Amino acid sequence: MKLKGYQVELRQVSEIDIEMLRKWRNDPEVSQFMLDRKPISREQQSAWYKKIQRDPGQIHFVISYRDQPIGAANLKARGLGKTLDTANAIEPGLYIADKRYRNNILAFAPTLLLNDYCFNTLGTARLLAVVKASNVAALNYNQKLGYKVENEGDLLEISLTHNNYLSATKQLRSLLSR
Amino acid sequence: MNSAETLYQAFASSLDVDLSEINDDLAYNSFPKWDSTAHMILVAEIEAQFDIMLDTDDIIDMSSVAKAKEILSKYEVSF
Prior knowledge:
Shape of chain A: globular
Strand order of the largest sheet of chain A: 1-2-3-4-5-6-8-7
Number of helices of chain A: 7
Shape of chain B: globular
CATH architecture of chain A: 3-Layer(aba) Sandwich
Number of strands of chain B: 0
Number of domains of chain B: 1
Strand content of chain A: 25-35%
CATH class of chain A: Alpha Beta
Largest sheet of chain B: none
Number of helices of chain B: 4
Helix content of chain A: 25-40%
Oligomer: heterodimer
Largest interface: A-B, 17 and 16 residues
Structural class of chain A: alpha+beta
CATH class of chain B: Mainly Alpha
Radius of gyration of chain B: 11 Å
């Protein structure tokens, strides 16, 4: 499965990607803000890949820009037994591994593509995310997408409705889809 | 005002900083006020000042003042 737009392409992860993803994920600069920061072994990565292949509640992508892989993204259904098609809420995730684009406006492109897919194709009612309160960059990033904080604490729960998303990202979507 | 002065002024007003803080080395990753919101404002300001419409690739690539000059040269703005 592929999603294309806003200058980037999201291609569903295949077996040839998993070692590249493991190296990215084990880079401290990438893992520092993740909830689970433990290094991942080849065996764990292989087991993870087998698991996601048969799980209709999640999908994982490699992000490409100008035909080069620059990061990874995923969608996970919220709720026991829910699939991406049936979930009322979905949790998107993303990291940009290529330093050149980590703090660039391009870092919004894969998220816009994922959000459009969730709201327009899957019919998701809302998107959810959990962000470490110390991760100010991620919080700012999500607030620029229209996310609102729902629960305060060391871990912040934030959520996004379709209307909030559309109004917060009108200019961003326009700039990235000329 | 020449092209360089116009560009520096566009950066200063978009990033909400004094003109004296703008130089060719100023870069997206090293200047906290130059975030994605400021970047969108900057694009709009540059387009208005130079009467051009930037391609998305150029908007993404515009990561420093020097790079902005290089990009604007493609749109027949001379420095």
